Amino acid sequence: MRTAAIFALLTVFFGFVFFFLLDNQPPLDFEKLSEGLASEEIDTQTGTIAYINESIELGILSDYINYPNLMLVGAFFSAAIFSGLSTFQIMVDKMFFRKFYESPRYLVAYRRSGLVVALIDSLILLRVFLGFDLAIAGTIILLFVIIEGFLSFGTRKQKTEEVQKVAFEKTDSTKESGVTV
Predict the structure, then answer these.
(1) Is the residue at 6 inside a domain?
(2) Domain assignment present for 181
(3) Using CB atoms within 10 A of its CB, is residue 86 exposed (0-12), middle (13-18) or buried (19+)?
């Protein structure tokens, strides 16, 4: 549970840094955005929101993005989500699926958190840069579910083979010693 506590603290830290950067280093370049708003003669807040939504739908919002700030904010967003999901999965695994003396499966929690973060990031990038197409989003979600299924099935199959191999070796050693089981 010490690892879960460390990841919980990391979640809080990355969350604070994310919101601080979002406030002080916004991913939108407001100078370019104000030039676009001036060329369209938009003065109101609702007009600005409508202009940004229209830019997202057309896939031209990338003209108004400050890429270094976007990468920095996105990295801390991804780190906060990753550490928060890892904390949650480690705690749930330890409390509901493991015995008291067993440790939780850290690698499974990290893998699933990484896949969820990659899924969220890809859906956000799809929304910002290409507009949002439900068929593409569904395909991306299905791809990540299939990847997780293959990874989970592969680790279970390896564990089953290892258990069978150990059991086979035990039965061979008892036959060689003349002991019947």
Answers:
(1) yes
(2) no
(3) buried
